[in-house]
Structures are given as C-alpha cells and as structure tokens.
Design goal:
Arc Repressor Mutant, subunit A, 149 residues, alpha+beta, single chain
Length: 149
C-alpha cells in the first residue's frame, strides 16, 4: 500500500492593495435618477396635465420611451452613459399603484386592441388628488408602505 502524505491546505490570498471608497460616495436607490423629471410617476403626471384628458397606459409608456430615446441620443454625443427605460410590465405596475392611491381613475372609454387576442385598451384620467399630490407621484410604493423606506 502507498503511504498517504498529509494534505496541505492552501491559504487564501490576501488582497495586494487596499480598496478605496468612492469619492464622493454615491447614494443609490432602487428608483434611480433621483429627482429626474423622467421618473415614470413624474412623467405620467406631466403627460396627463399636458394632454388634459384621458390617456391609456400604453400611450404614456410610448411617450416616455420616445423621450428617453431622444435624451439618449443627446447623451451619446457627449459620451455619457444612456438612461435605461423601464419595460412595459414594470411601467404598468405604476398605473396599478397610481390607481390604488387615487391619483388616477378609470374612465368608461375603451378601445379595441390592435390584435384580437389582446385585452381592450383602458383609459384613465387624472383626479383632483392626483393634481395636488407630489410625493406619491415620485415614489408610490414608499407612500403606501413607509416601512420599506
């Protein structure tokens, strides 16, 4: 039989240089772009005010997408990183929160969708509370659940 040699454990390497903290330290949150007018809630409120009436979630989303694409083209020229636009499913969740908070309400207007297998388009309008409110448009989840903030 062969003799077994004692196994030697390898030690973990220590970092060769010390990492420095970011200067200045960056404060990041899951909502991104802090006070930007292009946050989905603030953009939605401005869209409703500009169009003075009813709007569909898809219409607001496409307007936001076009605006972010316009901004990204300008940012690409100066070499800055582009903004990320939300996908439609996450944007439609905003409408759920706005509806829960009473910032918008459904209207009786419905339109057929482009394809027969899709649901009809539902239109919403801005309420009086939605015109007066500011904080709920900025961060609807934190207004409903302050324990998360």
């Amino acid at each position: 039989m062969k003799e077994r040699r004692p196994r030697i454990k390898k030690s973990r390497k220590q970092p060769t240089r010390e990492r420095k903290p970011r200067n200045p330290p960056q404060i990041t949150g899951f909502w991104g772009r802090g006070a930007s007018l292009y946050r989905p809630g603030l953009f939605t409120k401005k869209y409703f005010e500009k169009h003075q009436g009813e709007a569909c979630c898809a219409d607001v989303y496409y307007a936001l997408s076009e605006e972010i694409e316009r901004l990204n083209a300008a940012r690409a020229e100066i070499g800055e990183t582009p903004f990320r636009r939300p996908n439609y499913s996450s944007f439609s969740r905003y409408f759920h929160w706005f509806l829960m908070l009473g910032l918008i309400e459904r209207t009786d207007r419905r339109e057929r969708a482009i394809y027969d297998f899709l649901e009809p388009r539902v239109f919403y309008k801005l309420t009086d509370k939605g015109r007066a409110e500011v904080r709920a448009w900025e961060d609807p989840v934190r207004v409903v659940h302050p324990e998360f903030g």
